[in-house]
Specification:
about 100 residues; mainly beta; SH3 type barrels; about 35% strand; globular
Length: about 100
């Protein structure tokens, strides 16, 4: 997927409502997880990404700082994030418990 024409979200758009269920892509454009929810808002927010599993079953929630993600909207209006992590990198993070 070519992200070069996608519009970056502004800090005030980095909210739970906006990012819930957004796909997260790794460096090879592989889907590495889905944002399940967000703690806080803006640049200081932290995203909980579900990694692994199938349709949310058996997935592992991990917590990452929002500034580690490049969050954008594609031409169809779909919000997604791009990360430097691989799926294995995320799986190696500690499991997040709310």
């Amino acid at each position: 997927m070519d992200h070069s024409n996608h519009v970056r979200l502004q800090p005030d758009e980095l909210t739970d409502v906006m990012l819930n269920d957004a796909k997260v892509y790794g460096p090879d454009d592989e889907t590495i997880g889905t944002i399940s929810h967000v703690h806080g808002t803006g640049e200081n927010a932290r995203a909980v990404i579900d990694v692994g599993g199938f349709l949310g079953i058996g997935s592992k929630p991990v917590l990452v700082d929002m500034h580690e993600l490049d969050v954008m909207r594609d031409q169809a209006g779909e919000v997604h994030a791009v990360s430097h992590w691989t799926k294995d990198d995320l799986k190696a993070l500690p499991e997040h418990h709310d």
